[in-house]
Amino acid sequence: MRKLEYYVSQFGRLGPVEFAAQYGRPAFVAKGIAGEVQDQSSGKKGTLKMSISNLMVSESLTDRVWLVTKSDSTEPGVTGGRGSDNDIVIPEYTISNRHFCIHFEPFRLVLMDLDSTNGTFVGDKRLVPFQRAPLKNEAVVRFGRYQFDFVTRAGFLACVEAAAKPSR
Predict the structure, then answer these.
(1) Sheet harboring 78-81: ordered strands across?
(2) What is the per-residue pLDDT for 72?
(3) CATH of residue 65
(4) pLDDT score, position 168
(5) How big is the chain by its Cα radius of gyration, in Å?
(6) Distance CA 56, CA 36 (A)
(7) Given phi > 0 = left and psi -120 to 50 = alpha, else beta, which region is 20?
(8) Among 7, 55, 65, 105, which has the minimal tally of Cβ within 10 Å of its Cβ?
(9) Do 97 and 83 contact (CB within 8 A), yes or no?
């Protein structure tokens, strides 16, 4: 996971064609904390539930980018969560060890919650565990208490290119 500014510097160093070849992938860009975790005393040991508040900026993950990239694991799709055995590792305590999976389908990407404790949300809708939800460019996605912008390959390249342009 690197900050967006790293990709902007790589874009300037490599140029648009080489940058697209090396880094042109869908991505999650962390925006900040969208909720606080509270113990609701549900009777299930270790279970935490979310209560939503206004988006708060936290420096730890904000503006960090996770490229949607498959590692060498044999599992289908791209897995994500707090555990180090995932393709996308997000070091945040409200994200389950094995939180979500992204599958490549013809002409689209789909997101699936893997029965995580604090849920996966696309927009304001909590995903039903193990059901696939299509991901569109600039979708607002929340894992645990963190909010992310999902960008497609073209969306990521456009985001980096726009950030690389000098302001006037």
Answers:
(1) 88-89, 78-81, 100-105, 108-113, 132-135
(2) 73
(3) 2.60.200.20
(4) 54
(5) 16
(6) 10
(7) alpha
(8) 105
(9) yes
The answer to whether the beta carbons of residues 151 and 138 sit under 8 Å apart is: yes
Residues of the chain falling short of pLDDT 70: 35-59, 73, 167-168
Q: What is the pLDDT of residue 48?
A: 46
Q: How many domains, the chain? A: 1
Give the CA-trace dihedral at 72, 96, 5, 123, to 10 degrees. Answer: 110
Kindly state the tokens that stand for 165: 């342009």
φ/ψ of 50, rounded to 5, equals -90, 145
Task: Give the C-alpha separation, 99 to 83, whole Å.
Answer: 9
Name the amino acid, one letter, at 37: V
Q: What angle, 0 to 180 degrees and rounded to 10, lies between the N-to-C axes of helices 16-23 and 4-14?
A: 130
The CA distance from 64 to 3, in Å, is 4
CA distance 128 to 146: 18
Q: Is 156 within 8 Å of 25 (Cβ atoms)?
A: yes
Report pLDDT for 1.
77
Which residues constitute the domain of residue 159? 2-164
pLDDT of amino acid 75: 72
User: From CA 158, how far away is CA 156, in angstroms rounded?
Assistant: 5
Tell me which DSSP letter residue 44 carries.
S
